[in-house]
Amino acid sequence: MKIPTTSRTLLHDLGKDARSPRWEEFVARYRPMMESFLAARYPSLAQEADDLVQETLVALLRALPDYRYAPGEQGSFHNYLTGILRNKAAMLLRRRAAESARDARASAEPDPPQSRADEEAAARDEDEWRDAVLQIALRQLLADDSIQERTKQIFIRVAVKGEDPAAVAEAFGVSRNAVDQMKSRMMRRLRDLVAALDAAPCA
After folding, report:
1. What top-level class would CATH report for the domain 144-203?
2. How many Cα atoms within 13 Å fall on the side-chain side of residue 8?
3. Is 33 exposed, middle or buried (0-12, 13-18, 19+ CB in 10 A)?
4. Model confidence at 113, in pLDDT bands (50, 70, 90)?
5. Hey, do 1-101 and 144-203 end up sharing a CATH topology, with the first three levels equal?
6. DSSP for 84-105?
7. Domain residue extents for the chain
8. Residue 94 CB contacts under 8 Å (≥ 6 apart), including other chains
9. pLDDT band at 91 (very low <50, low <70, confident <90, very high)
10. How far apart are the C-alpha atoms of 141 and 197, rounded to whole Å?
């Protein structure tokens, strides 16, 4: 199964040429994760998700010529990307509230200090992004035709649903050791898929 990969020069190439054919590579890599992030973080914006992704890509296109990948200073690239995506979603929510002429309801508790709110938002973004990457990697793994269907079913029941390995082994007529080996092999492949999807590009 071919997984979209990001070379060390991808962001540099996109920043140099807004019409670079490598945009197709970038979109293939990041669009599914952006959509999953929005679905998890902003379910009320499901109908606008495609527009938000497009607006984020346009904003990124404008920002890339001046963007420099510096994880020690700015964090991972996906943090930068989800920051744009979150800002677009927040702007849409504010417009929606203004158009409906509804004032925001007062919270029962005082708002946290901005720095704390920012930290909490960043932590939620990271969790949602990691979950999106994992779900996409899992779908890719289970769609791999080179893996036997029995292995997939055993993996789902043991690793995804959390069923007792001994009971699953008995249900499929295999040894407990065989179930453990199948799970171990599938987990290694899943980790490889996650790493490939979430690898941070370098300029």
Report:
1. mainly alpha
2. 1
3. buried
4. low
5. no
6. HHHHHHHHHHHHHHHHTT-PPP
7. 1-101, 144-203
8. none
9. confident
10. 12
What is the spatial distance between Cα 153 and Cα 137, in angstroms, rounded to a whole number?
Answer: 16
Instruction: Give the tokens for residue 53.
Output: 């992704």
For residues 37 and 129, what is the distance between their CA atoms, to the nearest angstrom? Answer: 6
CA 140 remoteness from chain centre: 13
pLDDT at 201 over 60: no
pTM value > 0.70: no
List phi, psi (to 5°) of 42.
-135, 65
Asked if 60 and 81 touch (Cβ cutoff 8 Å), the reply is: yes
> Tell me: the pLDDT tens digits for 127-171?
778 788 888 888 889 998 899 999 999 999 999 899 999 999 999
- Identify the CATH class of 1-101: mainly alpha
